Amino acid sequence: MERESSAAAAMLGMAGFVVLAVSEHDGELEQAIETTADLVGCPTCAAVAQLHDRRPVWVRDLPSGGRPVTLVWIKRVWRCPHPLCPKRTWTETSPVIAPRASLTGRARAEICRRVGEDGAPVAAVARDFGIGWRTAMTAVREHGTHRVDDPDRLADIDAVGVDETAFQAAAATRSTSFVTGVVDLTRGRGPARLLDVVPGRSASALLSWMNAQDPAWRSGIATAALDPYRGYASALRSALPDAVRVLDAFHVVRLGFAAVDDVRRRIQQEQTGHRGRTGDPLYGIRRLLRRRYDHHSEKSWARLLAGLDAGDTTDEQLARTWVAAQELRLIYHAADRDRAQQGLYRWLAYCADADVPELTRLARTIDSWHAEFLAYFDTGRVSNGPTEAVNLLIKKIKRVGHGFRNFDNYRLRLLLHCGVDWNTIRATPIRGRLPRSAA
Ligand SMILES: [Zn+2]
Question: Which residues are within 5 Å of ligand 1 (an ion), measured at CB?
Answer without folding.
Answer: 42, 44-45, 80, 82, 85, 87
